[in-house]
Write a structure and sequence with these properties.
single chain, about 70 residues, alpha+beta, 1 helix, 3 strands, about 35% strand
Length: about 70
C-alpha cells in the first residue's frame, strides 16, 4: 500500500513593506555670505543628499546636512 501525499501548501510570501525614505535638511552658506535652507527628499543617505545639493548649487562655501525629523 502506498502512502498518500498531502498537497503542498502554497508558499507564503512576505508582504513587502516599503519604509519611507529619510528626509534631510541642508543648510547652505554661499561665498557671498548669503545663506539658504533646503529640504532634500530623494536621497538614499546623507552622502547622497550632499551630492544632490552640490550638483544643484553654485558657489557653495559651507554645507551642513542633517536628518530631518
Amino acid at each position: 500500500m502506498q502512502s498518500q501525499r498531502k498537497p503542498a501548501a502554497p508558499r507564503k510570501t512576505r508582504a513587502s513593506v516599503t519604509l519611507p525614505r529619510p528626509e534631510y535638511t541642508a543648510a547652505v552658506r554661499y561665498r557671498d555670505g548669503s545663506r539658504d535652507i533646503f529640504h532634500v527628499r530623494n536621497a538614499d543617505d546623507m552622502a547622497d543628499a550632499r551630492a544632490l545639493v552640490l550638483a544643484e548649487l553654485d558657489d557653495v562655501a559651507n554645507l551642513v546636512i542633517a536628518l530631518r525629523n
